[in-house]
Amino acid sequence: MQQSRRAVLTGLLTLGGLGLPARTVAASRLDALTIHGMPSVPSVVLARLVQAGSLSAVVDKPALAIYRNVDQMRVAVINGTTKMFVAPSYSTANMFNRGVRLRQINILTWGLVYVLSRTPDIGRVEDLAGRHLLVPLRNDAPDLILRLVLLRSGMRPDKDVRIQYVGAATEAVQLFLAGRADCVLLPEPFTTAAEIRAEAGGFTAHRVIDLTEAYAQATGRPARIAQAGLAVTEDFVQAHPEVVAAVHAGCLSAAQWTLAHPAEAGRLISETLNLAPEIVTRSIPRFRLVVQSAADARPDMENYFADLMEMSPDIVGGRLPEARYYWGAGG
Fold first, then answer.
1. What is the pLDDT of residues 103-154, one digit of tens each?
2. Cβ count within 10 A of residue 178
3. Which is nearest to 264 in space by CA: 274, 249, 254?
4. What is d(CA 257, CA 262) in angstroms, rounded to the nearest whole number?
5. Distance (Å, rounded) from C-alpha 150 to C-alpha 129?
6. Residue 26 pLDDT more than 80?
7. Cα angle: 67, vertex 72, 77; to 5 degrees
8. What are phi and psi of 157, to 5 degrees?
9. 301 with 89: CB under 8 angstroms?
10. Are residues 128 and 161 in contact, defined by beta-carbon separation less than 8 angstroms?
11. Where are the domains of the chain?
């Protein structure tokens, strides 16, 4: 995938719906705040944040919208019209290292990529030997982690496994369901959607490998990939620190509610994401929803970035981000 496509998966937060600074009422209070989340299940956290009124002390009219054009969003971050956004952590690290003044606020999801198989006879990474595996988005982070895991398991990714790259997860799902490959690597909610569609088609799509667990076994660390979360531009942190802190605190409570009420959460976000409520509800336990400030998540993030750079040195801009990239309790 081209670097311009890597820069951000999806999601941003703009002010007044246009990415322009909203009028300050008192201190950091804003008239309006539109949060743009990724077109994926973790955006349910932002939907609950808005619904629950968690920002009432600092924002008059919060709202949620889904930003779907990756290139537009990256340009908006770089030109300063986007102030806060949801993205893969490696994307924000890349932008930071290339001179974009931003900071990572938190991590929302800690691993949501799985391998589905048409047969149940795969129990570990080594069992992928000789299989035909569909992988969307070559050289994106899930592909790099898969290849790292294969290498550390003593396998040659391009020889021991027949990897077929496709352009998007939707294409991978369609080919897998059509019987064009043995296995497919997918993130949530595509994994759950593929399972449900397979059930409707009269066969079982077996969830045989949790890539996060396989990564943990390959690295000797806990099953945690600091995969995606909120980031914010430096000027917004300086101008509105109370808003940033309120958004993070709201994410904490919204995540707890989401895990405790998956069916309600599914209904809350399904129309916004154009997904069936059942897909969202079944996907929620699968994307490791834990909200942690970037300062607290820094060791996990640095381990993740270092492993990605082992496979593709340029993916985070060639180095680990400086300390100021990691937002924490002190802002």
1. 999 999 999 999 999 999 999 999 999 999 999 999 999 999 999 999 999 9
2. 9
3. 254
4. 8
5. 10
6. no
7. 90
8. -55, -35
9. yes
10. yes
11. 3-110+225-325, 113-219
Most confident of 11-20, 70-79, 85-94, 280-289: 280-289
Helix H or strand E segment including 214: helix 211-219
- Chosen CATH of 3-110+225-325 out of 3.40.30.10, 3.30.40.10, 3.40.190.10, 3.40.50.1000: 3.40.190.10
CA–CA separation, 47 and 298 (whole Å): 26
Topology (CATH level 3) of domain 113-219: D-Maltodextrin-Binding Protein; domain 2 (3.40.190)
Rounded to whole angstroms, how far apart are CA atoms 49 and 291? 13
Helix (H/G/I), strand (E/B), else coil: 101: coil
CB neighbour list of residue 124: distance below 8 Å, 6 or more residues apart: 209, 214
DSSP category for residue 324: G
Average pLDDT over residues 69-83: 78
Whether the pLDDT of residue 11 is over 50: the answer is: no
pTM: 0.89
The Cα–Cα gap between 15 and 165 comes to 38
